[in-house]
Amino acid sequence: MIEFDRLIINHDVKSMRSDFSLIKVFKTLTAFSVLTTVIGCSQTQENHDVQAQVDYPAYLFASFRGNGEDGLHLAYSRNGLNWTALNNDESVLPPAVGTKLMRDPTLIRGVDGFHMVWTSGWQDDGIGVAHSQDLVNWSDQQFVPVMQDYPSARNAWAPEIIWDNDAQNYLIFWATTLPGTYPDTEAKADKGWDHRIYATRTADFKAYSDTELYYQPDFNVIDATITPVDNGYVMLVKDETRYPAAKRLHAAFSDSISGPWSLNSKAFSPDGLWVEGPTILPLTLNGVQGYMVYFDAYMNHQFGAMFTKDFKTWEDKTSSLNLPAGTRHGSVLGVAEAELQQLIDAYGDNTTHFTPAQLQEVCTGEPLSCQLSTSSGNYGVAITTSSKFSSVYAESRRLMYAPEVTEQSAPVLHLAVNVRDAEGQPIQDIDEPNVDGLNVILTQSLSEISGIDVTKKAHTRSLFIIGDSTVADQTRQWLKPAEQRYSGWGQILPAWFGPTITVVNYADSGEGTEAFSVPDGVLWQQMAGQIQPNDWVLIQLGHNDKKNPRDVYVSRMNGLLETIIGKGAHPVLISPMIRNHGIELTEQHTYGDLVLRNELPKIARQNDVPYIDLMSVTNDWAIKLGQKNAQTFFVEKDKTHTNQPGALTFAGFVIEEIKRQQLPLTHYLRATAKQGTGQ
């Protein structure tokens, strides 16, 4: 064993909160000692996995945001799929050692408390280490120079830690590049970053064993993580080969934590998706015992999840996963109820819980309109029922869930709802009164609702919609039958999407490219500051550009697309749906020298953005049905505006095109989302 000559301990970061008295310290440590005895975390246990001792009631996800500058982020879950951020998704522990980053945090329950290791910098020769007894109060951070004896080492990335019960110490392992060591694979690496897995061991986090090569699979490998299973151990790794690109996850198996490892050469992560940072959670899902593997689909800026019983057969759960937006490579562990409550007491979960009795006070009318908050913003809503869900709306009759769109088998329905004042259309005067804050509309008896949880979201991935009255959130019109309610397809679209993306509809009646022109358009000014990198923007403009010459329309559209792309967001151009006049496609939306069906594909190609030709799709649909039958999907004699069944049909066409073109937006659809309902 050696003691590193550059073991750096940061004394500037307080290990306890300023109001944490010695009495409270004693009580916390005493309570933790009792708790660890109860849940099986004593050093005398024989099982080789501390984490697997208990069927934990909750789970904790440790991760980072951005480049890791602000530190550790925490979220919790009770089912491993739907996660709630703690501390309003702000950092709970800032980095203080190395280059002062806190990337790839691995947080584990050890035999003597909780321990965390992390990447402290892109080119540091060491890693960060810290400890806690309660996940709230942390020790001074250490910088452990694990690669100090390898002067050519370029880095020490994504460290992981696991307790080895046989050796009675902790195994810490990470990825490092030693230039020139493996020339064959280095030639296939990105700028010479050719990694192998190295490791050290420690029993007390003071003395560490000599760093040694731990895993060499004859390819560029990073992001190893290990979990015990009944017959040994499983290690997941990423093949980081760049030329030709691999970027996939593999499973390896061993009887011993020290290896040797038998690699399954067939990757288990989704085809065509570059991923990294796997982390493993043992859990029971729908009565089945197994493991949830989370991974960072970093090219799509989204997390994914796959469930397995044996690390050989896999079930993709990505569409059911709901993590805070911006979550990056991290780790997950089970926590006891007392531990979770201590975290919530310390940081808050920003969630309001409505019991059946409380819902009686805030839900009124027919259908039931529940005012669950009085402020604007983005919300996560979880509705629990004792029966099957009927349709659920929000705000101005925005369809959030419908049985004909997606089946909901679980007793909890999770929604992502955008709230703004005024609700509905952003700038139009409406006949119906505006109701401040978050309003959720239920179409079933309140006696069937067991509770509703509402969480204000600080950071969300958003799907913005730009358009006109055929897309807009129209008024409630509850007294009218669905066939007589004016409805925009953007008003219905949220029903297909899961809670990992929030639909924000800025479509407005009578508006065209002028209202969304950059930089002075009245609607563009309202939404421009909200668009963040990796958001999506659907754009249908043209119905109300009849008086604009071609050059003006094209210039405005190009400016809008260029600005959205410049923000790092992803626009999708959509041609306007038809007017049901029974005319040829060549006559639809032709205004002087502005022929939309000709110009829009050109604009999309010039800006390299996806294009959905809704005009042609709806024209083919109308021809198939005949003008008379197609008119039943419009409001009475109106040839332009759809009723609710029509909006449902046209929104379905948009979803079908998103799927057909395999746009990354498909990752945000609900798992059981059906095809559109066009006839």
Q: What labels would you give this structure?
A:
Glyco_hydro_43; Tachylectin-2, Chain A; SGNH_hydro; 11 helices; 30% strand; 37 strands; hydrolase activity, hydrolyzing O-glycosyl compounds; 679 residues; alpha+beta; Rossmann fold; 2 domains
Write a brief caption for the model.
GO terms for molecular function: hydrolase activity, acting on ester bonds; hydrolase activity, hydrolyzing O-glycosyl compounds. The chain is α+β, with helices and mostly antiparallel strands and 679 residues long. Helices cover 16% and strands 30% of the residues.
Describe this structure in words.
- Pfam families: Glyco_hydro_43, Lipase_GDSL_2.
- InterPro entries: Glyco_hydro_43, Glyco_hydro_beta-prop_sf, RhgT-like, SGNH_hydro, SGNH_hydro_sf.
- Belongs to the 'GDSL' lipolytic enzyme family.
- A hairpin with a 3-residue loop joins strand 23 (363-364) and strand 24 (368-371).
- This protein has two domains: 8-347, Tachylectin-2, Chain A (5 Propeller); 351-668, Rossmann fold (3-Layer(aba) Sandwich).
- The strands form nine sheets. A five-stranded antiparallel sheet has the order 1-8-7-6-5, with no helix packed on it.
- Mean pLDDT is 90; it is low at 11-48.
- It is α+β, with helices and mostly antiparallel strands.
- The protein is built from eleven helices and 37 strands.
- 16% of the residues lie in helices and 30% in strands.
- Helix 7 (550-566) packs parallel to helix 8.
Secondary-structure blueprint of this entry?
Elements: E1 8-9, H1 22-38, E2 58-64, E3 73-77, E4 83-85, E5 103-110, E6 113-119, E7 127-132, E8 142-144, E9 157-164, E10 169-177, H2 183-186, E11 195-202, E12 212-215, E13 221-229, E14 232-239, E15 248-254, E16 262-263, E17 276-285, E18 288-297, E19 302-308, E20 315-316, E21 328-335, H3 337-347, E22 351-354, H4 356-362, E23 363-364, E24 368-371, E25 377-385, E26 392-394, E27 398-401, E28 412-419, E29 439-442, E30 449-457, E31 462-466, H5 489-492, E32 502-505, H6 522-527, E33 536-539, H7 550-566, E34 570-574, E35 590-591, E36 594-595, H8 596-607, E37 611-612, H9 614-625, H10 627-631, H11 644-660
Parallel strand pairs: 31-32, 31-33, 33-34, 34-37
Antiparallel strand pairs: 1-8, 2-3, 2-21, 3-4, 5-6, 6-7, 7-8, 9-10, 10-11, 11-12, 13-14, 14-15, 15-16, 17-18, 18-19, 19-20, 22-30, 23-24, 24-29, 25-28, 25-30, 26-27, 26-29, 35-36
Helix pairs in contact: 7-8
